[in-house]
Amino acid sequence: MSISLLAAPRSTLSLLTALWIGVTGLARADSPEPAIAEVTPQTSPHDVREYRLLSLDNGLTALLVHDPEADKAAASMNVSVGSADDPEDLAGLAHFLEHMLFLGTEPFPEADAYQGYINRHGGSHNAFTAPHDTNYFFDIEPEALPGALDRFSQFFIAPLFNADQLESERNIVHSEYQARIRDEARREFDVLDQFLNPEHPGTGFSVGSRETLAAPAEGEPDLRERVIDFYERHYDANVMHLALIAPQDLDAQEALVRERFGAIRDRDLEAPRIDVHLALDEPLPMALQARSLRDRQQVRFLFPIPDPIDDYPFKPADFLANLLGHEGEGSLLAALREAGLADALSAGVTRSDGENALFAVTLSLTPEGAERLDTIQASLFAAIAGIAEQGLEAWRYEEQASLAEQQFRFLQHGPPVRGVTHLAMNLAHYPEEDALYAPYRMGEFDAERLAPYLEALTPDRLIRLYSGPEVEGEATSPWFHAPYRAETRVEWPEATPLGGLALPEPNPFIAQDLELLGHQDSRPELRLETPGARLWHQAHSCFRTPQVEWRFSLQHPAASESPREAALTQLLAGWLDDSLNEVFYPARLAGHHFEAYAHARGLTLSFSGWRDRQPLVMREALAQLIEGEIAEESVARVKQRLAREWRNAPQAALYQQASRTLGEALIRPQWPTADLLEALSSLDGEALHAYRRDFLDALHIEAMAVGDLDAALASQEAQLVFDALAPRLDAEAIPSLTPLAARQLPPLRPDSQRQESLLLRYLQGPDRSLASQAELAVLGQLLSTPFYTRLRTEEQLGYVVNAGYRPLLDAPGIALLVQSPETGSQAIGERIDAFLETFDASLADLDDATLAPYRQAVRDQLLARDTSLGQLTDRLWRGLALGDDTFDRRERLAAEVMAVDGERLRRAWQALRQSDPLDVAFDPGDEPSDVLALSRSLAPLPEDGAEE
Length: 948
Known about the structure:
Layout: H1 12-16, E1 50-55, E2 61-66, E3 73-79, H2 93-100, H3 113-120, E4 124-129, E5 134-140, H4 145-153, H5 163-179, H6 184-193, H7 223-234, E6 240-246, H8 250-261, E7 286-291, E8 297-306, H9 316-324, H10 332-338, E9 342-350, E10 356-365, H11 367-371, H12 373-391, H13 394-409, H14 416-429, H15 447-455, E11 463-468, E12 475-476, E13 483-488, E14 525-530, E15 533-539, E16 547-555, H16 563-579, H17 581-589, E17 593-599, E18 602-610, H18 614-627, H19 632-647, H20 654-666, E19 667-668, H21 673-680, H22 685-697, E20 700-707, H23 711-725, E21 738-739, E22 757-764, H24 770-794, E23 800-805, E24 813-820, H25 825-844, H26 848-862, H27 869-881, H28 889-898, H29 902-914, E25 918-922, H30 931-935
Parallel strand pairs: 2-6, 7-11, 15-20
Antiparallel strand pairs: 1-2, 3-5, 3-6, 4-5, 7-13, 8-10, 8-11, 9-10, 12-13, 14-15, 16-18, 16-20, 17-18, 19-21, 22-24, 22-25, 23-24
Helix pairs in contact: 2-5, 3-4, 3-24, 4-8, 9-15, 16-19, 16-21, 16-22, 18-23, 19-21, 24-25, 24-26, 24-28, 24-29, 26-28
């Protein structure tokens, strides 16, 4: 695949909320600064939002967005300073400053003043430090926006830099470093940084630790003074860009911004610029090897290039990445897959700094591929030569440009909090008029603009970075402790490239009929029903895009009956995706997405994309499922991927392992990864062929179509699927997903190789009624901020600290979690006990006026507007899986939430405190629990309080 600015994945926000280390990055575009009053951002023709650009007297640039459909307001401030600007003697200072700004300002001195206000009003907040940017963002109920901006703006006007919080927050930063110390990408780039230009500010340690943020020598300025000095030297209105999205009109937003942000200091600063090369010529080419902790082998081919940001209107690097990252027939990846050398490829730009960047081609390797790096490298350069000879053609560029324009034309904006983050960063890096359009803009084809980038992709400029668990190191990287070997000025050995490479043909999946039909239903309706299948359909045009989302759940009674059946279901879904990869890659580029994924009841076929040409994709997938050849090499690739995933499970983030352990104990059916891995080992193409036959012979199908599609056409398409698969079982033949009652279980210990400690305490509700769900949801909202403040900010137990409502299916519960690099699970449990006793007392004094905003926040979260067609469909689909075929469960639950009063909460909390908690605990060296054996006798959690 190509890594491009043309499309951001749905999961982008989760990437932004983590600390950025420069694996990816945008840089600054030089362009004249037009008068803001004369500039209007270019928008999609179907965009109903209104925009206004402001330039305050102090130099702050702000983009205001009036979204009349928004039910959340959001703001983001991007500051053009980051970890690359850390002083040499204080690595991690920019990141530490980011943390300190959350801990009180002159008008709001309490450490939790900002976080508590956001939580009370149904919002979320976070920040990240990147090499050249620090970004702060939040969302909240629109009515509470003025109060949120009161608190948020003071970060940039009058922060306290509380001396009494300095040491505790340094410990938190160190805990964050420890939580990420086993991250494979960070380990690899820690090795790479040792061989890039040591004078380049982007090659240092960015997170910070107790060591790098230690108290200075006597007579030197103390840490607080250094933080204040950094803030005053780098935080300035001229290098800040604010974005705001809200349902309030533009005049109201402008008044809010001018009143609150006009006092930010104007120090006449400019964004820092990099004036040294990222990579030095002298050691090139070089070969690096780093030891991975996980069972996976990967190679990155990295080439120093000019940062393409100045050429953003023409996307030269994206154009090349699209050709090298293509996965269709004749592509580099197709040849490597056929030869059994690799199973995934991505291409794109990384480590951008405004002047320099690296062009990266990254491959996930098979064990054989790890032994044949020279063949892979020769094949890469053969593919590059093919592009140079035949790829720089206008029609190829114009095809990419038309797809980008098509995507922009029907742009779905997504959640406001994600939108403001992107807009604030775009304002910092692109001309104001392109704040929305820049990632999609592609001008006229110009081969001369492509030449400098293509000419940089040569063997004598290559940095080859291989990582695998077998690497024997000669040295260890300084911050993430990766053993490595290095060879500079390498003379690459001769190798023969693979044959069969070819450039892609014109894309046959590009949609032509983009007419908006405009049909609208209030909710999904049952359109087709047979003994073995049902179709739910909702015509939906509110997103103003001619797209449709389809889901087909193919359910089989034995899909998860044992670890073997569960592994076979995973293998069947994986094989279907893998076997269609070359055929469907052009479809993905054209905006048609297909995925087969396994679940406890069977597997789901998911189709997303333009209405036009979508039936071609659906029929191709269906034909392959029913009668496609099950090739052993495809099965082997999928087996390797699944085995790698399951073997690496003990290396996953510890809080993720704890969540999985909780699910293994309290949801049926579900199998531990060790059992799945053992079952997988004996499976082959013959076993999968037999399973496919048996699976397709006894199906029940639940289907859903949502989007710009009328009922007649939806029924016609679904009937074709039903006729082809001939489902014959009714819904009662399929085992239900069952949450179990957490009663009298000992502490459960995950199978982990991590070096941190953890305690997850789970307080389960008495039943699955809406009343219990409502009560625990409000309780979770109430305790979230005080738990975080007490155990993270005040007691400094670790970086990963959270608490809140955590249902398992429709079984309500509250989870309290602490992951710590130093405090053991028993001590964490004692701290949680102490917190719960304090919360007991605070709840006893709770009055309705105090409760009201928390209750309203839960209600608003439940009824939050869907911001894309995919999000809407996924919500409806999840509801259907839980039996909500009237599609009004969230409305009923929201009404129940608003009926919760203080007395009900106290009774519910008392019942929780008297029931058996379930602890998932871990300390380094613990033996894993036999979770299935310990939970085998658990009964289902009752549906309502009347059941026993």
